[in-house]
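Box S1 | Example of a co-folding query
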Amino acid sequence: MKITPTNSLVGAYVEDVDLSTPIESDAIDELVSAWHKWGVLFFRNQNLNDEQQVAAASIFGDPVPYDFAPTTEGSEIVHKIDNEDGKPKGGSSNWHTDATWLKEPPRGSMLQAIKLPSSGGDTLFASMSAAFDSLSPATQNFVDGLTALHHGGSKLNAANRIAKKVPEDAVSHPVVRTHPVTGRKCIFVNRLFTQGINELNAQENEALLPMLCDLTLRPELQFRFNWEEGDIAVWDNRSVQHYATADYSEARVMHRVVLAGDPVE
Ligand code: SIN
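Box S1 (continued) | Returned holo structure for succinic acid
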């Protein structure tokens, strides 16, 4: 197996692994440790069926049903991100971590490109541990220990943000989480789902929350993956955010498996 980091702070390519066949335990250890280190792994030309994709995802955690998207035919776990009509759907084209409105958001997600437009449809990834490291010690100290409210709130308008009319089912998470394996601190607020920092007033939120969310925009912290059909990307939601570019007008179909979450601490 060959693992080659991208030319960025996030992501690594894995070669000489066939995810459609059982992987030996030494290789599993190597893959999992590279995943923790680089946040997202890319495997070219895998072309997995549903069963193989679920088995491959189980290298990194427990694949679980995801009730918020349609499944593929015959699977309870693999679900479709289906832009068959060539019209990107809004949510994914915001920097986010998957489903932070859950009490225990998915540990990670594995995405496979099934059908791609002739150009466009890249996915970008940003390292949230590098984002934390990029802050001054004074800001690190200040934000570490704060908590923020999350909701599936792309439907909440700006006036409702910042904890004004946040629904009862919103959940609170630390603004900075500690990765349970690497021990690295990771910024854990995002543009799509975070509604406000609990301990700050509205004016302070207006200033600080966008600043923290938009650390994803720093090119130094990003990697942009250009898909080919059959490629797999598996990312660690605890330390990485992602963004699906909405720059195409032909069909784009992806199959995704999410991994059971763990407590955000
Ligand atoms: C996602 O947001 O999980 C999907 C990303 C993509 O379709 O590239």
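The helical segments are 25-38, 50-57, 128-134, 137-143, 202-213. DSSP finds five helices and 16 strands in the chain.
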